[in-house]
Amino acid sequence: AALPAEVPHLACCVYAEALRCLPAMVRLWWNNQDKRVSGVVERFTSRHASPVLAQEIAAVQATGRRIHDMTVRARPAAREVVATYNVEEVYMELVVTLPPNHPLGPVAVECGKRVGVASQQWWNWMLQLSTFLTHQNGSIMDGLALWKSNVDKRFEGAVTCLFC
Q: Domain 1-158 adopts which CATH fold?
């Protein structure tokens, strides 16, 4: 029996919504598929779903989000989101880059600039953000909010040394 015409459309809508709301779950499912199925899913996602999901970057660009001491801007053509955090003598910038098969492939989290932060502390924050974006079902903005929260905790109540 032939499928009704709306079933493939519904399946695509459900898949796109799963990618948006449950990216880690879809990634886990995809990683457990045989090579043939994972290849078909990756091609479909790269061609049809990822460009739609990359609109998340365009949405960031449109709002020019600023959350207290953090500014978030987008580079849609490069599929990047840049977050900057600036408090007193501390300046940090990180870049989140989406792969062509987003969210199946892992995002890249890179250090833009950092002033006033030890490299070990910076590495820990980058690892936390990368882990969140890879293994949790949250958006890039959710991950950046977590990163900001961790940075805020580090500098909460910190007294500026006049001699340092």
A: Ubiquitin Conjugating Enzyme (3.10.110)
